[in-house]
Structure formats: structure tokens, C-alpha cells
Design goal:
The protein has 129 residues and is of the alpha/beta class. Helix content is 42%, strand content 19%. The protein contains 5 helices and 5 strands. Helix 1 links the parallel strand 1 and strand 2. The longest helix has 14 residues. The relative contact order is 0.17.
Length: 129
Amino acid sequence: MKKPLFFFLADDDEDDRFFFLEALKEIDPGIECMVASNGKDALALLQNDFFSLPDYIFLDLNMPLMDGLKCLEEIKRIPSLSHIPVIIYSTSSEKEVAASCMKAGAYAFFIKPSSSSDLLNYLRKLIAG
């Protein structure tokens, strides 16, 4: 039996977290997702041996305490986490921002969609490979 996918999402916006979780549920109710509201909490949870490592990490770029780029840089320094694909997502469409995220080791830079169907399509493509 195939193990269900496990996502990790760090986003300070409660509505964005809700829409992300709903999209995953629509794609496959078996997908698990752990959430954090900032990069600092995300790092603490990701390093907790009690939890399994996620298949994908989504980080909002603009969060309090530790932003997504700083969190990404920290994740890439931790051997047990460095192999996990990290997707930075943001409302920013600035090419320089995306380039700096990719340079820091992001798997992808994704502009937050304006509709739930765009989010669903992106997640479906990601999961399909």
C-alpha cells in the first residue's frame, strides 16, 4: 500500500492556510498536512523527531518572526531536511525575489493564486510529478 503524501505548510495567513488544506483534501483526502504560522515555528516542528518528514514544504515568503527565505536557508543547512523540495509562495511576482529564492535552494517559486482552481491545478501538477 502506498504511503499517503505528507505536506508541510508555513503561512501566517489563516485564510491561505484554510484554502491550501481544502485544496489538498479535494485532491486526495488521504494527504496529510502539518501547518505553522511562521518560519521559526516551522523549523521547530520540522526538527521534531516525533513527526515524519514531509514530502514537500511550502513556505510563505512574508511571515513574522522568520520569513520564508530565511527559513529556506535554514532548512537547506540541516542535513535531515535539505533533500526535501521547498516551494516558496508569495503574492510578489518580482523576478529578483523569485531568483533569490531559487538561488537559496527553492525547488520552485509559486505566486499565490487568486483562485482555488489555480491552486488545485498547481498542486495536482506537483503531485503528478
